[in-house]
Specification:
alpha/beta; Helicase, Ruva Protein, domain 3; Arc Repressor Mutant, subunit A; three-stranded antiparallel beta sheet; DNA-binding
DNA sequence: TGTCCACTGGAAGGGAGGGCTT
DNA sequence: AAGCCCTCCCTTCCAGTGGACA
């Protein structure tokens, strides 16, 4: 054995010229097919440059429809232009998936506005009101217009309720020397229904809906990024096409399309091939599916796992479109085998709905006349994934043996 | 036309557990 | 430690329902 083990791979010619072009955080210089949405944001935010308060906004759209990237793009330009004006513009962006309590959101914004000599606000410990007061005084000290972006704001409301949004949309009545406007970004179109009507009317003074990209639009985006990020001439005919089509099926998610293309190229690279073909895209597709489903499956609560397990088991035995009753009976059996108390059918019916929302099963209500009304349930987990062993593998309460045994018996 | 099946899904309430105040 | 409140998960109860069939 000679040489360093990294050398072989390190020296290998990469098919990428710039991986960053496929990064989720990458900010392109052009945003094709989002002109309309961009325009909406610009028309509203231009008020900030005139020293007026822009309306609060809510941006809606499926994941990967460009909400965050468009907002960032507009805000960068706004800040730049703001430097030339008398009244400065400050922006802060918070991702509410990571920062998901009232305290932490306010603390984060206030910390961004800190100046040298300000005493730091602790991560925890202060009453939330005091943090809010600090934020207000810092905003006033800075003056101008503050734009606060709350990305994935539906997360925040799920976990912390609308108290924060109430305070934030109320800031302008407390600020003396500055103004503030809120931009909420949400994947969920019905998100405002969870809010207090007073909050929702103040927050969604102006709504912009980001429509999902259609396949041809995704194609354009991919072509552009491919030019930036990967070598010329290595993509075989139809690769971009397929990536775009697959992502368009997934509700027009451009991010997914970029992931697909990136992983396809990686797959080719790993195999030391110089061309990326359709088969690499297929590989990438199943890799993505696997990565998406596995963590969800593994972290499902016990009873939800058992319900899903019952569905998968029936399907393994060739039964599709099974009814709630069938699922429940299998589920009760499974519970007995591993000696735990089954939940009621009412509860299981709710669990089925939850699994449906998670996208792990497909359920639809059907009536079979005298046969009664029920749900038709099918697993939505890609066939390539062995859901049953994934579920038992991670479950300490049901040890693999008991599930395995049951599986064996039901096959006989 | 009415019946009736096998559920669905809303409403209300119990109780365990976590966090906060006293 | 005690008391309180809130949230989550779950149960119980039950009215409501789409459509095949008598």
């Amino acid at each position: 054995m000679e040489g360093n083990i990294f050398e072989k791979i390190l020296g290998q010619d990469s098919l990428f010229t710039d991986r960053k072009a496929f990064d989720h955080a990458f900010e392109p210089s052009r945003l094709p097919h989002r002109e309309h949405e961009l325009d909406g944001l610009v028309r509203n935010l231009v008020d900030a440059l005139n020293g007026h308060i822009p309306s609060n906004m809510l941006l809606y759209g499926v994941p990967g429809s460009g909400k965050t990237v468009v907002t960032r793009y507009v805000l960068r330009q706004l800040e730049e232009k703001g430097k030339e004006m008398v009244k400065p513009v400050y922006t802060s962006e918070i991702n509410c998936r990571n920062v998901d309590t009232k305290y932490r959101v306010v603390q984060t914004i206030a910390t961004q506005l800190a100046k040298r000599g300000d005493s730091p606000i602790p991560f925890t410990g202060w009453p939330t009101d005091r943090v809010l007061e600090t934020l207000i005084s810092r905003m006033d000290r800075a003056g101008g217009v503050h734009i606060i972006v709350l990305d994935e704001v539906d997360n925040l409301v799920d976990k912390a309720g609308d108290a924060l949004l109430y305070s934030l949309t109320n800031l302008n009545t407390l600020l003396k020397n500055s103004r503030c406007s809120i931009i909420g970004i949400s994947n969920d179109l019905n998100f405002t229904q969870q809010l207090d009507p007073r909050v929702s009317s103040r927050l969604s003074q102006e709504d912009i809906v980001f429509h999902p990209y259609i396949a041809s639009e995704i194609e354009n985006i991919l072509v552009e990024r491919a030019k930036m990020g990967i070598k010329e001439q290595i993509l075989e005919e139809g690769v971009i096409n397929l990536c775009a089509a697959l992502a368009a099926q997934e509700h027009g998610d451009a991010r997914r399309a970029l992931d697909l293309l990136r992983i396809s190229v990686q797959k080719a690279e790993q195999r030391a091939q110089t061309k990326v073909g359709i088969k690499h895209v297929r590989l990438a597709q199943s890799q993505l599916e696997y990565d998406q489903v596995t963590p969800v499956l593994k972290t499902l609560p016990l009873h939800q796992k058992l319900v899903l397990f019952s569905i998968c088991l029936n399907e393994e035995n060739g039964l599709r479109n099974i009814s709630t009753g069938d699922v429940y009976r299998t589920y009760v059996d499974a519970c007995k085998k591993i000696e735990i108390e089954p939940l009621t059918s009412r509860r299981v019916s709710s669990l089925l709905n939850e699994l449906d929302t998670l996208g792990l099963i497909m359920a639809k209500n059907v009536s079979k006349g005298r046969g009664g009304r029920s749900k038709q349930v099918n697993s939505a987990i890609p066939k390539a994934i062995d859901a049953i062993s994934l579920m038992s593998e991670s479950e300490t309460l049901i040890d693999e043996a008991s599930l395995g045994k049951y599986r064996l018996q039901s096959h006989l």
